[in-house]
Amino acid sequence: xxxxxxxxxxxxxxxxxxxxxxxxxxxxxxxxxxxxxxxxxxxxxxxxxxxxxxxxxxxxxxxxxxxxxxxxxxxxxxxxxxxxxxxxxxxxxxxxxxxxxxxxxxxxxxxxxxxxxxxxxxxxxxxxxxxxxxxxxxxxxxxxxxxxxxxxxxxxxxxxxxxxxxxxxxxxxxxxxxxxxxxxxxxxxxxxxxxxxxxxxxxxxxxxxxxxxxxxxxxxxxxxxxxxxxxxxxxxxxxxxxxxxxxxxxxxxxxxxxxxxxxxxxxxxxxxxxxxxxxxxxxxxxxxxxxxxxxxxxxxxxxxxxxxxxxxxxxxxxxxxxxxxxxxxxxxxxxxxxxxxxxxxxxxx
Length: 349
What we know:
- This protein is mainly alpha-helical.
- It has helices at 2-55, 62-87, 95-108, 121-144, 149-168, 194-212, 214-224, 226-231, 236-262, 273-283, 295-314, 319-338, and strands at 188-189, 192-193.
- It has a single domain, classed as Orthogonal Bundle (ABC transporter involved in vitamin B12 uptake, BtuC), CATH 1.10.3470.
- The protein has twelve helices and two strands; from the N terminus they run αααααββααααααα.
- The protein has a two-stranded antiparallel ribbon.
- Strand 1 and strand 2 form a beta hairpin.
- Mean pLDDT is 85; it is low at 344-349.
- One of its GO terms (cellular component) is plasma membrane.
- It is found in: Cell membrane.
- GO terms for molecular function: transmembrane transporter activity.
- InterPro entries: ABC_transp_permease.
């Protein structure tokens, strides 16, 4: 009997040890994946920089470096909001429509070639208010009516585009006439373009929001399991609406800065931004299913795509081929960056 008890105790001890070894192995693999994904992006960036610097000697110049920062600033701002939405397990396709509506509202309420009123700082408040309304509307329809975010935000894209088109009307292009703002986005301050300083501020605030606030923690929790969040009594409804509102505000800010950069108002001021933002978030390692990822990873994704586009132009690739080359490299980059999470990738809700 004693031998039997000892034998059972020994088996239990072996079983417990095996479980601990297995858990330790899982933790090590998780840590490795967490390091491998950003490292793979850094390797891809280094490869692109090396290839393009060989193809064109102007690529590694200081002026082109500043061009890359200016080109990446607006996508970075918009991508912070897109990252928060995808961390929920949702998606926001309204980016370009919100940018157009906000940009047109802002320029028509600022000093422009059409005349009218010049509200100064209030033009920023009202224009961002338009973006906020569109974002809250998307969040409420998605959350309260349980319409998939893909459908809601796709529709809101066209709502924003429609607002921008109506504001544009049939008159001449509204040109920015505020001399203090003309060229402001690309003006260099302490070695960096002004628009990039704004992007750095937004990135910093986004990281603080995600890591140190209740909204950020609940956002990650919803992405992992909304059922558990609701059963714990956490404010899932309010947080989801708030995240869509924040994303729209950042898209609106991007729309205003893009309008300043162009010096003219246009309903399509955000054209092409969505194609950079969503792939950048995914390439950066944020899971489409939500719950895992981060803003710093998205920053790497934005830089990868911006450097790719910049390098293709400097390398003399014809515009008719640039989209095809960009798309092919984009698919390869996504596969390379997301390979370690392929078994866990989910379709966005």
